[in-house]
Structure formats: C-alpha cells, structure tokens
Amino acid sequence: MKLNYKFKDKKLLDLALTQSGANADNNNERLEFLGDRVLGLSVAVLLYNMFPSETEGALAQRHAALVSSDTLATVAGALELKVRHGHMTAGRMKHVMADAMESVLGAIYLDGGFDAAAKVIADIWTPLARQNLTPPKDAKTSLQEIVQQADSGALPEYEFLESTGPSHSPIFNVRVSAMGHSATGAGASKKSATADAATKLLEELK
C-alpha cells in the first residue's frame, strides 16, 4: 500500500509523524484532531455513495468500523509509517499508529486541501469498505446478543478500571464479564475501550 500524495511542505509530514512522547512541544496532536474530522466526513461521503440503499444505522455501523483505531493502525502499518515516539508498550503502539494516520490525513488537508485528502482516503478506504458487503455489527452488540441467547437474557457487565498515560492523552481501561469469562480492553475513550474489551471477550467465547 502506498500513500499517493506528494507533500509540498514536507515539514507537515514530519510533524504528523512526531508523537508527543518524542517532542512535547511540537507534535502531531493538533493534526490528529484535524485529520479525525477530515477522515470522518470523507468516509461518510464515500459510504453514502457506495451504498445508496442502506439505512442510516447500517451506514453508521460501517463508518464506525472504518474509522476505528484498529483500522487506522492497520492502514498505518500497511503504509509503513515511521513514527517518532517515546517509550511505548505494545498495546499503546496501536493507538500511536492510529493517531499518526489521522495526523497524516490532517497534514494532507493543510498541504493540499480537502479534495486532495478525500482522494487519498477514497483510494485507501474504498477497498476496505468493499471487503464487507454486509454491514458489520459492533462488538458490543454482538456480545450482548450471544450472552442473551446463551444465558437467559443476561447482559455483559462492564467495569471502568482506570486511565493511564498523560492527562492530555489518556488511555482508558475497561473490563467486561459474561458467562464466567472476562476480558480487558483499552482505548483513547471509554467507548473505544469498551468496544476493545467486547471484541476480546467475543474472541475468547468463540
């Protein structure tokens, strides 16, 4: 996979690939904020055009999967982004790569405008959207359905454990328990941590 874009201002790309652990003052956090919005709108437009007969709910499920940290980290890995960062655990690196991918998209937007960023996103995300012709269910919903069917209507129980990392970029940790099993997930928000925990418990139950 290649990033089919040539930067006019290469300093923007350099900044996009600099995590706060490597440089507390000049890093990619603001570009990440911008890239998240550019990606969200671009993928929404992409899905709206690709699946004209689908409901808002189905499009929302596809959108959530395509802009998730897992997808972003996978794309960043396929592009072989070289991110400068401080000491990181393996679990934290996924989020660093996902953030860097959003930052690169934000940098492209600043360097070449929305159309340039949207084209890069379409090139990369269109094949990803085509991989699943059926709208995906989010992990939390899938887990709830399995537990309710197997355990007489019982529901998974979620517990917020703690947040780690710097205050400006915390990582939340959540544990989910059901059917005598439990799993712990992490994410940049409680919502993403919950989804990560549900995904891990689904894998264990299967």
Please provide a written account of the structure.
By secondary structure, the chain is mainly α. Helices cover 57% and strands 11% of the residues. It has 8 helices and 3 strands; from the N terminus they run H-H-H-H-H-H-H-E-E-E-H. Helix 4 packs across helix 5 and helix 5 (90-112) crosses helix 6. The longest helix has 23 residues, at 90-112.
Query: Which regions contain 5 or more consecutive residues with pLDDT less than 50?
Result: none
Q: What form results from the Cα inertia axes?
A: flat
Question: The biggest beta sheet, please?
Answer: 3 strands, antiparallel
Mean pLDDT: 89
**Radius of gyration (Å):** 18 Å
Beta-strand percent range: 5-15%
E-strand count? 3
Q: Note the gap between the termini.
A: 31 Å
Please give the count of helices: 8
SSE topology string? HHHHHHHEEEH
